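Proteins fold reproducibly. Take a tokenised chain:

. . .
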Amino acid sequence: MASAVVFMLVLTWGGTIYPWLSPTVLSMTGAAVAMAVAFVWYARRADEPFLPLPLLGGTVAPFALTAGGCALGAITGLTVQLPLYYESVYHLSASEAGLALIPLAAISTCGAAIAGRTMARSKHYKRVAVVGTSWAALCGLALTLTTLPLWALLMLMAAFALGLGTTFPVCVVSLQNSVARAQVGTITGAMNFFRSLMSSFTVAAFAAILLISLGADIPLAGEHHGAVSAIPAADMMAAFRYVFGAATAMMGCAALCLIVMEERPLAGPTIAQPVEMAE
């Protein structure tokens, strides 16, 4: 956690409070890397480590963790930063910008439901997530390359969320299916930890992209004090092309991880053996 916090401070302070190549930023980056290496060194030698590293290896766990982290990071980062885009480009009020997030937040659950039902019926269960993440990457590419009216943007955002949502049940079930039953809780906790970490990193990274593109004095998410309308719409659209491009790259990475991930047969429920009564 110390390494993660220091790295997020680098993303937040770099280019704003301190130059990217300043001694402060470089030393903080080195400290974050050193603490991460120290954590790995200790976890490999501890009898009961906080995070058992062998569970994160193999042909399933690293790819499922990365795919799930990229998907949750992309949707979280966009949810935090999109109100700024809606207010500046489409001149929505704060409440209207919040309502405009519904297609992104709500439709992703539909994608998750579709993937869950498909997994219960199909032997090749990861295909729905591969198709979904690839579809989300294509939608993200369209967001990056085109400027759309609000209604078209919301429809494309809903399509993006539909594909993104298929990632979550496939990654969760694949992770839990890849370990012994006694380790299901451990791998699930590790998954939640990495997802939260990736979401925090993505929010900080998207904010850094906007700060680099628009300048260090712009109001970001949670800091709107009436200055959003002062940002030219053309500048905001140009800056968000990089944000949409980053989200597209994350979904492309998720699709690639799901393609490479091993598709193991899903284990059924444990059936208790009947106990014969003693005579």
